[in-house]
Amino acid sequence: MNTWLDHGDRRYTDRVRLLVEILPALAQEPRFALKGGTAINLFEHDLPRLSVDIDLAWLPVHDYAEDARLIAEALGRLADVLRARPLQLQVQLSAGEGAGVTRLVTSRGRARVQIETTPVMRGTVHPARDPASFSRTATHAAIKLAS
């Protein structure tokens, strides 16, 4: 059976594989939910096109300084998980302007995936959803989706 992985750029395919390996680890921080292009294309439309980065929404909303601190701490814990077995990824932490850590750049070999959030855009309009309830693609990813 031919799939979207059988065609196209090998670097793109490697990045998508890495992204799919990373997603289950992100569920270890339940205050994050997947949002943006990856959430839409991976779970809502079952992979017609996939951006190869991960955007996270911080679900609780407190004051800005407290949330920025908590986001940085949560990303630090995720970096530790991604560096450990079984993934053993290289992970660089990156800070946004005037904020703590807001981005992780993960890599294995030539494949690289960014994981980003922002302390400015927090919370959701609608409750976060479990993708396993509506997506064939989500059988292994326990992270919630923000819409």
What is the secondary structure topology, with strand pairs?
Layout: H1 10-26, E1 32-35, H2 36-44, E2 53-58, H3 64-83, E3 90-95, E4 101-108, E5 111-116, E6 144-145
Parallel strand pairs: 1-6, 2-5
Antiparallel strand pairs: 1-2, 3-4, 4-5
Task: Walk me through this protein's architecture.
- This protein has a six-stranded mixed β-sheet.
- It has a single domain, classed as Beta Polymerase, domain 2, CATH 3.30.460.
- The chain contains three helices and six strands.
- Helices cover 31% and strands 22% of the residues.
- The longest helix is centred in the middle third of the chain and has 20 residues.
- By secondary structure, it is an alpha/beta fold.
- About 5% of the residues have low confidence.
- The protein is globular.
- This is Nucleotidyl transferase AbiEii toxin, Type IV TA system.
- It comes from Burkholderia vietnamiensis (strain G4 / LMG 22486) (Burkholderia cepacia (strain R1808)).
List keywords for this structure.
alpha/beta, six-stranded mixed beta sheet, Nucleotidyl transferase AbiEii toxin, Type IV TA system, Beta Polymerase, domain 2, AbiEii, 147 residues, 31% helix, single chain
Task: Please identify the top-level CATH class.
Answer: Alpha Beta
Percentage of residues assigned to helices: 25-40%
Identify the strand order in the major beta sheet: 3-4-5-2-1-6
By CATH, the topology is Beta Polymerase, domain 2
Q: What would you call the structural class? A: alpha/beta
The CATH architecture classification is 2-Layer Sandwich
Quick summary of this structure?
It comes from Burkholderia vietnamiensis (strain G4 / LMG 22486). The chain has a single domain (10-136), classed as Beta Polymerase, domain 2.
